[in-house]
Amino acid sequence: MAIARGYAATDADQPLVPFTFERREPNADDVVISIQYCGVCHSDIHTVRNEWKNAVYPIVPGHEIVGVVSAVGSNVTKFKVGDKVGVGCFVDSCVGCATRDLDNEHYLPGLVQTYNSVDADGKTPTQGGYSDQIVVKEGYVLSIPDNLPLDASAPLLCAGITLYSPLRHWQAGPGKKIAIVGMGGLGHMGVKLANAMGVHVTVLSQSLSKKDDGLKLGAKEYYATSDSETFEKLAGTFDLIICTVGVAIDWNAYLGLLKVNGTMVVVGAPEDMVPVHAFSLIPGRKSLAGSMIGSIKETQEMLDFCGKHNIVSEIEKINIQDINEAYERVLKSDVRYRFVIDIASLNA
Prior knowledge:
Layout: E1 2-8, E2 17-23, E3 30-39, H1 42-48, E4 65-72, E5 84-87, E6 90-92, E7 112-113, E8 133-137, E9 142-143, H2 150-153, H3 159-169, E10 177-181, H4 187-196, E11 200-205, H5 211-217, E12 221-224, H6 229-233, E13 238-243, H7 251-255, E14 258-266, E15 287-290, H8 296-309, E16 315-319, H9 323-331, E17 338-342
Helix pairs in contact: 3-4, 3-8
């Protein structure tokens, strides 16, 4: 087994600290990746602080991983040493299933998450991208387009696909009006992707503090939800609303912004129950739905789309020694718009 170095959480109330651990021995179907950058997702914070009550310590977080192939197994055909690659939120799926639905593998039992999970051997803990290397099955490695910079591509592996998947599923395109709730790490990717799809994009944010950014990134309109007149003015406007925030909102008020047959999709993860009145849905045949990342096939499609349209995340690069401070800044919404760890800083 190879020795890897990274940063890990050892308990819910402790800061991340330097950590040395073993990666599993590569098999014939595996790709070994030298990690160069890893995005910081709010899910990392939820997990290491055990806010979802499923943490198994120690945890090396990180599922927005990009780097370069350093070795391949004898059966690997899609990748070679030196290729630019990425790894997203899962590294195996439907282990032991008789059949696999490759379009919906991320919703099936047996999903092996990139960290805080158990690998296909049933015993090795998976550890994420806040580290210098990772071993992944070929089928879960993604190709990064040559024209995209690796550092700003990292957040595409979670934030990007989290927005791309519902946009594609609900058929975003010319003639559609879509609202993105929240202008953060997820929301700003939604604006970029929807704009590239030819959609009329509106941002709904608590304030107008990021309005200039939103319009620059492709939004056609930008409204403050703290202004009560916003909901009156925009009633019945949108075909699709994608909610990226992880805090409580007035769900019924937002559902009132949908057209007949409109859908509101939840991709943020609020801790509290979602209270919705039946009559926010029945008149107008409206829907409230959820969406979670995307399949490997769809994630590669998203990366290729981003390559075609030169779409990457707006990032702030940090050294790994600053990760605990970065977490606090994420919680204060003090980042525009995604932290990305420079893994080379492990050697500092």
